[in-house]
Design a protein that fits this description.
By secondary structure, the protein is α/β, with parallel strands linked by helices. Helix content is 44%, strand content 18%.
Length: 423
């Protein structure tokens, strides 16, 4: 009997030990599921070269998202890790970077670099690997590829190429301007924007009196501006990247060229560093914008983001305001994160299907993708710079030195034509 009781106790102890071990194993598995291998999101970004002023602020926006999503528990119960390389604003580096991210780093997801000229060379690699691809400010890139898993984070809407200058031509037509000159860098973005400008000129029956491209490495814009001046246009549309934009503004001022309107599709003028460099030389210019801190666009989420961004900007050595690409940098990786959460998977096909069919709420508002991965509706604007005095930073906070002049639903004032009245 004693032996029988001992065996019963031993069996009970073994059962308890087994149950305890199973419980601990289960708890360990749950902990591993919540804090296991990070979900790696890979991308290239312009951290040096002509687009670095914009690329760096986009990266800080993305890193703020990374910090915040991880504090909330990550995605699918796993932490998130951004894996990135400097593309040096050089399209030739991009295919190699994305091949390395996918084949060597084994990232789970990829996301686009910044800007048309860098996104286009990434497309063949991404398509070959079948990855979903949310990109940052690529103009009509997918019009050449028609890739079903491409999604463009830029508010150009379905009429992509004309969208950058559509508002500019609306203002020109309203002021009964008859002739226009077009000048563009010989690069992917600028050619696309200029193609759209030709469509807008035709739509508004404006005669094109000058239509030329210049090499991307151009540094002296004086001969170009003199040639445009000789054509005597009412309006001038410039399709340029940041250093070209600065050079063009300076050359127009130095020569004393005074068309009635000038601007259009100039990348760079949105960044604080270039606004401070150019100061009053910007007064009167009309140029595209994608977001401004007006009452129409401010909301608690974007205000909270800007407070966090601006508190970290100085230490990070980036644009102190973050209005242009800080906000969008956060929002485009936020779109990918919400699609992962919504689809409940890292499967690229299922994430793409979710993005095609589901509006996404971001700090920049609700976004719905339409045909070819472009936005279903346009949110592009034209702003006119005014009242800039000196190079002080604080004047560029808020709306004191810019007026949204198109489209009417976002407008905060009327365009002043000729632009010389504001100089």
């Amino acid at each position: 009997m004693f032996a029988h009781l001992t065996l019963r106790r031993l069996a009970g102890s073994l059962a308890f030990a087994a149950a305890t071990a199973a419980l601990l194993l289960s708890a360990g598995s749950q902990a591993q599921a919540q804090s296991g291998e990070p979900i790696k999101i890979g991308f290239g970004m312009a951290l040096t070269g002509p687009l670095a002023a914009n690329g760096k602020q986009a990266l800080l926006g993305m890193q703020i998202w990374e910090d915040q999503i991880n504090k909330k528990g990550g995605l699918l119960g796993r932490p998130v890790k951004l894996v990135f390389y400097d593309d040096q604003t050089n399209p030739s580096t991009v295919p190699g970077l994305y091949t390395k991210l996918i084949d060597v780093d084994k990232v789970d997801l990829v996301i686009g670099p910044y800007a048309t000229n860098m996104i286009a060379p990434a497309m063949p690699v991404v398509m070959q690997k079948g990855k979903v691809f949310v990109t940052l400010f690529g103009l009509a890139v997918n019009s050449e590829f028609n890739y079903p898993k491409y999604f463009s984070m830029i508010p150009t809407g379905q009429n992509t190429k004309p969208s950058f200058t559509e508002g500019f031509f609306e203002i020109a037509a309203k002021n009964k301007l008859g002739t226009v000159s077009l000048v563009a860098a010989d690069a992917e973005f600028s050619r696309n924007a200029c193609e759209g400008a030709r469509e807008n000129a035709k739509k508004h029956k404006m005669k094109i009196v000058y239509d030329r491209t210049y090499p991307p490495a151009t540094t002296d814009f004086t001969p170009i501006v003199r040639a445009i001046q000789a054509a005597n246009p009412d309006a001038v549309v410039v399709c340029s990247y940041p250093l070209d934009s600065v050079g063009m503004v300076r050359a127009v001022n130095e020569i004393g060229f005074k068309p009635k309107m000038i601007g259009g599709a100039m990348v760079g003028l949105q960044a604080t560093v270039f606004k401070q460099q150019l100061g009053p030389l910007l007064n009167g210019w009309i140029n595209y914008e994608t977001w401004v801190p007006s009452k129409h666009f401010l909301n608690p989420d974007v205000e909270a983001f800007l407070a966090e961004y601006q508190s970290r900007a100085k230490a990070a050595g980036v644009d102190p305001l973050g209005y242009y690409l800080g906000t969008w940098g956060y929002a485009y990786v936020e779109v990918l994160g919400k699609a992962v959460e919504g689809a409940k998977t890292l499967n690229d096909d299922k994430i793409a299907e979710y993005l095609r069919t589901t509006p996404i709420r971001t700090i920049m508002g609700d976004i719905k993708f339409g045909k070819n991965g472009e936005w279903a509706e346009s949110g592009m604007m034209q702003v006119q710079y005014k009242g800039i005095k000196g190079n002080d930073l604080d004047q560029f906070r808020g709306m004191d030195t810019q007026v949204v002049v198109d489209p009417p639903r976002f407008a905060t004032g009327e365009a002043v034509v000729p632009f010389e009245k504001l100089r």
